[in-house]
Amino acid sequence: MFIAPTGRIGGELTVAGDKSISHRLVLLSLLNRGSIEITGLSDCIDVKSSLAAVKQLGVSVTQEKELTLLQNRGMLARQGHFNIDCGNSGTTARLLTGILAGQPGFYRIFGDESLNRRPMRRIAEPLNMMNANISIASNGCLPLEISGSRSLRAASLSNPTGSAQVKSAIMLAALQAFGETTISEEISGRDHSERLFSRLNLPIMLSSNSIRIKGPAELSGNHRFSVPGDISSAAFFAVAACIIPESRLQIRNVLLNPTRTGFLKVLRRMSARIEEKTISDKWEPCGDISIQSSELCATEIVADEVPYLIDELPVLAVAMAFARGRSRVTGAGELRHKETDRIRDLIGQFKLAGINCRELVDGFEIEGPANISRNACLDSCHDHRLAMSLSIMALASPDGLAIENTDCSAISFPEFFSSLRNCTRQKN
Ligand code: S3P
Fold first, then answer.
1. 235 and 371 fall within a common domain
2. Is 311 a residue of the active site?
3. What average pLDDT does the structure give for the chain?
4. How far apart are the CA of 163 and the centre of ligand 1, in A?
5. From the alpha carbon of 23, which atom of ligand 1 is closest?
6. Annotated active-site residue in 43, 191, 230, 311
7. CA 198 to CA 168: how far, in whole Å?
8. d(CA 79, CA 56)
């Protein structure tokens, strides 16, 4: 697809419900005796993988317009042997494993080519320390097999990669385990599972660097949630409005959880003009963001900040390519274990576009402002976040760019291209 440069970005944008929160609500329905009613669940392909999995395991799923109703009898309605296809979704595969480890039955978890290459030892090992019975392929990846049972035991565990998926998988297993499980972390990444457990009055205790959960705990009742807009989807438009001259954009009703808004801090450090206004803070904070274009300058991102902006690093790299000076990201080795090796593929594509940049073991360096090559033809490498980041780069490039394989944007943001059309304006 050829994406032409746009005059400017303008108007108002709302995005579908946050993907991370949506996955957690859907998957938790497996442990609830009762119903979970959700307004504004994400409609992306990844969350559809979670919905299909819970349906296959016996949860009744009804969807009408904005409403999703998940009804369950509090245990897996059908016990037996299940082959569960998680598609491209690491969150589905990992969180589901934490749940199924404590549910009698035999479960085989697999995914598409990309998911089948992602590391799973990081969940199998801690869960097996809780007396789970999980085996993974010899290369440490999917397919993963779980002989679930009601004999999980609490354990004291760490989360060395800082992965929120690993933390959440352990938390979900801990709810079903006998005793008090402790998870210690140096940096705690996104905290949606903690907020959800607290909101549901589940037995969770939080201190600065640890989470304690006392099991086994019952979850029952009829619960209602409204999911704020996905801040990671909004990030593509925020960067577009920063780097395309004369832009001015309002993003409404979006998640403003500080464990997810690290990219806004970074953009401000780069001299972006961004204002945030929290409108509601009952469960997950949400509100509005307004952005005006400005000249950006280079910045440095180090390990401490990475968990708060891991998914936004590809689009931040685009901002860096348009900023004056040399930007540097380190401590982001986890990017190599995403849907693709996002360091290798991002820098590979940036080089094809003529950008002066280089790969580091755990990050990258980018020299800006770049002269993006005319006639460059880039490829998303079938990674949704690369597809959307490169598309923003195309919009901001003087001659536009051709980008192959952009359909995968629907993995997290099916409305990406229609929103882009709605927010592009002629120059004043
Ligand atoms: C997610 C956690 C992050 C993130 C992913 C969603 C989650 O992954 O990259 O897109 O919902 O918990 P890791 O836990 O592997 O860091």
1. yes
2. yes
3. 96
4. 6
5. 11
6. 311
7. 13
8. 11
Give, using CA atoms, the residue closest to atom 13 of ligand 1. 163
Among 122, 165, 194, 231, residue to substitute to test ligand 1 (most atoms within 8 Å of Cβ): 165
Cα(20) to centroid(ligand 1), Å:
8
HSE at residue 39, side-chain half, CA atoms within 13 A, is 5
Q: Is 20 in the pocket of ligand 1 (CB under 6 A)?
A: yes
Query: How remote is the CA of residue 9 from the centroid of ligand 1, in Å?
Result: 29
pLDDT tens, position by position, 89-99: 999 999 999 99
Task: State the pLDDT at residue 426.
Answer: 84
Q: Report DSSP state, residue 174.
A: H
Which of the listed residues 193, 226, 259 is the one where a domain comes to its end? 226
The CB of 378 under 6 Å from ligand 1? The reply is: no
Closest atom, ligand 1, to C-alpha of 412: 10
Are 169 and 235 contained in the same domain?
no
Same domain, 237 and 208: no
| Claim to verify: residue 102 and residue 26 sit in the same structural domain | yes
**What's the burial of 361, exposed, middle or buried (CB within 10 Å: 0-12/13-18/19+)?**
exposed
Q: Do the Cβ atoms of 9 and 36 come closer than 8 Å?
A: no
154 lies in the same domain as 242: no
Please state, in angstroms and rounded to a whole number, the distance separating the CA atoms of residues 158 and 165: 13
DSSP β-bridge partners for residue 67 = 39, 64
Is 91 close to ligand 1, i.e. is its CB under 6 Å away? yes
Whole-number pLDDT of residue 375:
84
- Alpha carbon of 191 to ligand 1 centroid (Å): 11
Residue 169 shares a structural domain with residue 241: no
Number of domains in the chain: 2
| Residue 165 near ligand 1, beta carbon < 6 Å | yes
Q: 409: alpha, beta or left, given left = phi > 0 and alpha = psi -120 to 50?
A: alpha
Q: What is the CATH number of the domain that holds 117?
A: 3.65.10.10
Work out the average pLDDT over 4-33: 96
Cut 0.85: pTM above it? yes
With a 6 Å cutoff on the Cβ, whether 93 touches ligand 1 is no
Confidence of residue 74 (pLDDT cuts 50, 70, 90): low
- Phi/psi of residue 8, each to 5°? -160, 170
**Full domain range(s) for residue 215:** 19-226
Q: What SS3 class is residue 182? A: strand
Q: Is the CB of 284 under 6 A from ligand 1?
A: no
